[in-house]
Each structure stands twice: as structure tokens, then as C-alpha cells.
TrEMBL record:
InterPro entries: YicC-like_C, YicC-like_N, YicC/YloC-like. Residues 6-159 form the Endoribonuclease YicC-like N-terminal domain. Residues 185-297 form the Endoribonuclease YicC-like C-terminal domain. One of its GO terms (molecular function) is hydrolase activity. The keyword Thylakoid does not apply. Belongs to the YicC/YloC family. The keyword Nuclease applies. Keywords: Endonuclease, Hydrolase, Nuclease. This is YicC family protein. It comes from Paradevosia tibetensis.
């Protein structure tokens, strides 16, 4: 079954409420070798961390992913308590400054406004409210991961188009190498004749039979038929992977390494400057392909 191609980069945000409690979920992903999930959950959400990981992991195969869940319980009520220890410390400090500083004593609201003097205790939720909150949070997580998947697929479609162009260029260069005149054995023999003529002119004698043997050996060493066949097979395989979509990044990365291996061998076997130039262009196109493949899930 065909699946959309997905990038490993994306961002999504979702929010919701459960009773008087509001919450938000954010997900951000970047490239990664596997699936690396980091959780930043509000206090009290440890019981559902495993379920969050399971639901996200069911839809995301690769990438370094950060999941942040924040909760705002202010609407749920609670109580404000004076921190007696902090208040005593403030009053003691005020008494110590009495007569040393020419200033009026602070007002009550000024003292209570100091950090730490007042503590706000959130009203605990009963079991049913807590269960409803967790259920709503998990639904929010599902909406958020769906948004992340969609964002990654949009970018994946753009990268897929770039990959297809690189594969087309690799195919063009492969065909160019295949039809290059230097691959013809007659051309190899002609070059060898020229080299032999130079040797004869210099006083060295080489028989026609020996020249034919050397020509055959040179032609065999310079034969890139096997490399060209493998490049054609890799091109077909790469297009099949792009068409299938889904998490094919690892397979495409391996295939780009195989492309590079064949291009290196082609360059090493080349017996003409023009063919070597084609091989170098082929390596450049393969490098561009692999660079984009690194972004694919």
C-alpha cells in the first residue's frame, strides 16, 4: 500500500480543556537515526507517559522528537496560604533595619506581594476528574501527533520531488557513460596502436599478436558494463522506494551508498578524460541525493 513520503522535521500544537483545567501539547521533531522521544510533562502526568509514548510511536517511525505538555489549573480553584516561615523572616529583617534606613514601613499588601510569602495550593482533583483529565490529554496528544505527521508529510512531498530530480540526473549521466565512445574495444585497440607506434619509432619491437593481447586486457580492465548495470538497477530500486513512500529513509540512505560505490569504480576504470568527468558529475549528483535522503523518515 502506497504511503506518503515524510520528512523528519516538523512542528505541531494542540490544546484543550477538561472541566476548569486547560492544557496544551506541543511536538517538535528534527532529524535522527532512530526514534528518540523526549518528554516534558507537567507534574502529575507520569501515569500517562507510557501511553503518550505508545500513541506517538504508532505514527512516527524516525526522528528526534520533543513532546511538551503544559497544564493550567488556575480555573480549577484552590487556596492561598501564608508561608509563616517566610513572613517571619521578612518581619525580622524589617525589625533589623528599623532606625537604619530612612523609609516608611511597607504596607501589608507590599509584604504579601513578596515572593514566597504567599503559597497557592491547587485544589486536588478527585479520581473521576483526574481520569477525565488524562483522557482529554491523550486525545489532545493524538490531535497534536496527527498535526505533526501532516506537517512532516507536506515537507516530505517537497523533498520527494527533489529526490526524483536527482535520480533523473543520475540516470542521465549513467546513459551518457554507457554510450561514451571510449567503451568501444576498437577505440581501445586504436589507442594501443598509437602507443605501439610510438614505441616502434623509439626502437622497441612489439608483435601484432602481443598488441592484440594487450588491447584485450586493457578493454577488459576498462569494462564498466557491470557498474552500469548495477547503477540502472539502483535507479529502478530508488524510484520504487519513492513510489512506495512511508519510512524508507534508511533504505534510500543505503542505496545512495551503493550508488557512490559504483560511481567510484567507474572513475577508477575510466580510460578517457571525458568518461572520468562523467563519473565525477555522477558522484556529485549522488552526494546531492544522499544529502536530501538524510531528511527522510
Amino acid at each position: 500500500m502506497t504511503q506518503p513520503l515524510a520528512s523528519m522535521t516538523g512542528y505541531a500544537r494542540a490544546s484543550g480543556t477538561a472541566g476548569a483545567v486547560s492544557f496544551t501539547c506541543e511536538m517538535k521533531s528534527v532529524n535522527g537515526r532512530g526514534l528518540d522521544m523526549r518528554m516534558r510533562l507537567a507534574p502529575g502526568l507520569d501515569p500517562i507517559e507510557g501511553e503518550i509514548r505508545r500513541r506517538v510511536g504508532a505514527l512516527v517511525a524516525r526522528g528526534s522528537l520533543t513532546v511538551t505538555v503544559n497544564i493550567d489549573r488556575e480555573g480549577a480553584g484552590g487556596e492561598v496560604v501564608v508561608n509563616q516561615q517566610a513572613l517571619k523572616a521578612v518581619l525580622k529583617a524589617m525589625d533589623g533595619l528599623e532606625g537604619k534606613v530612612d523609609a516608611r514601613r511597607p504596607s501589608l499588601d507590599g509584604i504579601l506581594g513578596l515572593k514566597g510569602v504567599l503559597d497557592q495550593h491547587e485544589k486536588p482533583l478527585d479520581p473521576e476528574e483526574e481520569e477525565a483529565l488524562h483522557a482529554a490529554l491523550l486525545q489532545c496528544v493524538e490531535r497534536c501527533v496527527a498535526g505533526l505527521v501532516e506537517a512532516r508529510r507536506r515537507e516530505g512531498a517537497q523533498i520527494g520531488a527533489v529526490l526524483a530530480r536527482h535520480i533523473d540526473e543520475i540516470e542521465r549521466l549513467t546513459r551518457l557513460a554507457e554510450t561514451h565512445p571510449s567503451r568501444d574495444r576498437a577505440a581501445v585497440l586504436e589507442r594501443l596502436r598509437g602507443q605501439v607506434a610510438d614505441l616502434v619509432a623509439a626502437g622497441a619491437g612489439v608483435s601484432e599478436e602481443r598488441m592484440a593481447q594487450e588491447a584485450l586486457l586493457l578493454a577488459t580492465r576498462a569494462d564498466i558494463r557491470e557498474e552500469l548495470d548495477r547503477l540502472v538497477a539502483h535507479i529502478a530500486n530508488a524510484r520504487q522506494l519513492l513510489a512506495a513512500g512511508g519510512p524508507v529513509g534508511r533504505k534510500l540512505d543505503f542505496l545512495s551508498q551503493e550508488f557512490n560505490r559504483e560511481a567510484n569504480t567507474l572513475c577508477s576504470k575510466s580510460n578517457a578524460v571525458d568518461l572520468t568527468a562523467i563519473g565525477l558529475d555522477l558522484k556529485a549528483a549522488i552526494d546531492q541525493l544522499r544529502e536530501q535522503v538524510q531528511n527522510i523518515e
